[in-house]
Amino acid sequence: MVSINKTSSKPYYEQLMLSIKQEILQGVLVAGDKLPSVRELARDLMMNPNTISKAYKLLENEQVLITVKGKGTFVKKSDSTQRDDFRIQMLKGKLKDLFIEAGHLQVTHEELVEWIQESEEMWGMKNED
After folding, report:
1. Separation between Cα atoms, residue 116 and residue 126, nearest integer Å
2. Full-model pTM
3. Residue 16: which domain range?
4. Residue 60 · residue 67 · CB < 8 Å
5. Domain check: are 18 and 53 in the same one?
6. Which of 50, 55, 75, 123 has the greatest number of beta carbons closer than 10 A?
7. Are residues 69 and 32 in the same domain?
8. What is the DSSP annotation of 76-115?
9. pLDDT digits (tens, 9 = 90+) for 36-86
10. Are 65 and 94 part of one and the same domain?
11. pLDDT tens digits for 22-47?
């Protein structure tokens, strides 16, 4: 299921969140799918349960997961009509930073476009023209 790179500088809980979102984008996880319990996933990934719990809670706050007391944690059905404008602006800021860094490193426009297309294919995102 999810994967964590223990040598990455990115915090484990962020890696876990991105990994779950990636699996949803790719269709590996779909609405209604049950995720492993915090203890199970902590054991499988050899991580602290608090880290798993933090990732699950943040994904609940983002309306990606839902926890039903006594039943478990599930992938929540997405409401495609609802967008989180605040998080979209945060993402836009990250993209701006990326473009500044790319310009500094003399990355070409063509390379950036190629990277975006590769990412769309790799992560299962569809171009909706």
Report:
1. 11
2. 0.72
3. 12-75
4. yes
5. yes
6. 55
7. yes
8. PPP-TT---HHHHHHHHHHHHHHHHHHHHTT--HHHHHHH
9. 999 999 999 999 999 999 999 999 998 899 999 999 999 998 766 577 788
10. no
11. 898 888 999 999 999 999 999 999 99
